């Protein structure tokens, strides 16, 4: 119940007063601790850790709120988000959204797997939330160019019900029906989009 109240409190703070844009420079200053895992430029070099560069502002904000409220759990994030104020969260959202999106530096050496991934994306209607180019929008994640192993991890967590917070219900419904082959194909396809 406390977690729900914390998330609702943030939501109320967003809508109770006129929306205030986050301060990109303040977000950059606050992102120092984030860079250890998510990269100095928001592009993660750490396995199983998502890149944040180019993620939609509201997506970053909501994920931080879910971590802070405990509705999304991660031991590494827990101690970091407990110290964040709502203003910090707005600023971090603005900062990461301002960065150029991550790009997969590796050529696609498995185009057949990407073709299967593209088919899975169409069949599961991924673009209906994540947009046609998978750049995300508002509170929906950018998937294009994201780390492949992270996408596999996230899809498996949604499929098993292990991951909560955010669009959990929609993602659980979609991921639950994915075969292991489709998960790998989708992740490969999305990771090689720029």
Give the number of DSSP strands: 0
Number of domains: 2
Structural class by SSE content: mainly alpha
Task: Give me the Rg, rounded.
Answer: 16 Å
Shape: globular
Largest β-sheet summary: none
Q: Total number of helical segments? A: 11
CATH superfamily of the largest domain: Cytochrome c-like domain
- CATH fold description of the largest domain: Cytochrome Bc1 Complex, Chain D, domain 2
Order of helices and strands: HHHHHHHHHHH
Return the CATH class of the largest domain: Mainly Alpha
> Mean of the pLDDT scores?
89
**Proper CATH architecture of the largest domain:** Orthogonal Bundle
- Alpha-carbon distance between the two ends: 40 Å
What share of the residues lie within helices? Answer: 55-70%
User: What percent of residues are in strands?
Assistant: under 5%
Poorly predicted tracts of residues? 11-18
Description:
With about 190 residues, the protein is an all-alpha fold. It folds into 2 domains: about 25-100, Orthogonal Bundle (Cytochrome Bc1 Complex, Chain D, domain 2); about 110-190, Cytochrome Bc1 Complex, Chain D, domain 2 (Orthogonal Bundle). About 55% of the residues lie in helices and about 0% in strands. The chain has 11 helices and no strands. The chain has helices at about 1-15, 25-30, 35-40, 55-70, 75-80, 85-100, 110-125, 125-130, 150-160, 170-175, 180-190. Helix 4 (about 55-70) packs antiparallel against helix 6 (about 85-100). The longest helix has 15 residues, at about 1-15. The radius of gyration is 16 Å and the shape is globular. Mean pLDDT is about 90; it is low at about 10-20. GO terms for molecular function: electron transfer activity; heme binding; iron ion binding. Pfam families: Cytochrom_C.
């Amino acid at each position: 119940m406390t977690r729900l109240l914390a998330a609702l409190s943030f939501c109320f703070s967003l809508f109770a007063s006129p929306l205030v844009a986050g301060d990109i420079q303040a977000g950059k200053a606050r992102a120092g601790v984030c860079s250890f895992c998510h990269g100095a430029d928001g592009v993660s070099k750490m396995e199983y850790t998502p890149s944040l560069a180019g993620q939609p502002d509201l997506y970053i904000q909501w994920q931080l709120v879910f971590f802070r409220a405990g509705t999304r759990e991660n031991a590494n994030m827990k101690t970091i988000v407990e110290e964040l104020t709502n203003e910090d969260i707005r600023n971090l959202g603005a900062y990461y959204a301002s960065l150029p999106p991550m790009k997969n530096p590796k050529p696609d050496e498995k185009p057949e797997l990407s073709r299967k991934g593209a088919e899975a994306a169409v069949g599961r209607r991924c673009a209906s939330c994540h947009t046609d180019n998978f750049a995300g929008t508002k509170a929906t994640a950018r998937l294009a160019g994201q780390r492949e192993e992270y996408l596999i991890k996230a899809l498996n967590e949604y499929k098993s019900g292990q991951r909560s917070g955010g669009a959990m219900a929609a993602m659980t419904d979609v991921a639950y029906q994915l075969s292991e082959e489709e998960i790998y194909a989708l992740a490969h396809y999305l990771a090689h989009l720029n």
